[in-house]
Amino acid sequence: MGSDPKLSAVVSLPPCFQRIRSSAISLGFIMRMIIRAFFRLLRLVLTPFMLLSEKLSTPKAISRSPEQQAEIDKATENLALYQFRACPFCIKVRKEMARLGLNIELRDAQHDPAHREDLLNGGGAVKVPCLLITDDQGEKQWMYESGDINAWLNRQFG
Which of its termini does the chain have fewer beta carbons within 10 Å around, N or C? Predict the structure, then answer.
C-alpha cells in the first residue's frame, strides 16, 4: 500500500507553515468569540428597550361581559406559552393575547431549566414562541410560529 502524496505533503509542512496554520485556527476562534460577545452585548442593551416598547404599545383587551370572560378564562386553563421574555416573536404573541384578553400561563423557557426541558422533550425543540394546547382528553399539541399561534388564538377566541 502506497501513501497518499497529498497527505504526506500536509504532514510534512515545515514548522513555520505549521505555526501559521495553527495561528489561523486561533484567529478564527478569537473572531467567533468576539462576534458572540458583540451579539450578547447587543441583546443586553436592546432588551430593556424592547420590553419598554412592549409595555407602551400593548393594546387594551376587548370588552366582554364577566360571564363571557369567565368562559374564556376556563378555556385558556389548558394553554401555556413557552417564551423568552425579550424575543420579538414572543412579544408579538403576548400582545395578541393581551388584545384578546386571554389569561394564558407564560412559561420562561430561557431562564427556567424545567420549562426548557419540557419544551425540548414535548415539542422536540427549544424554539419559541410555542403554545402548548392540552385538550380535554389530555392530548398535547405543540404549536410553533407566532403567526400560526396568533391565527389559532383568533379563531378560538377572537
Answer: N
Q: Of the candidates 135, 127, 138, 20, which has an alpha carbon nearest to the alpha carbon of residue 81? A: 127
Measure Cα distances from 34 to 26, 42, 43 in Å. 12, 12, 14
What are the tens digits of pLDDT across the range 54-70?
999 999 999 999 999 99
The whole-angstrom separation of Cα 152 and Cα 131 is 10
- 128 within 8 A of 142, measured Cβ to Cβ: no
- The SS3 assignment for 2 reads coil
Cβ-Cβ contacts under 8 Å for 127 (sequence gap 6 or more) = 119, 144
The answer, as to whether pTM is greater than 0.85, is no
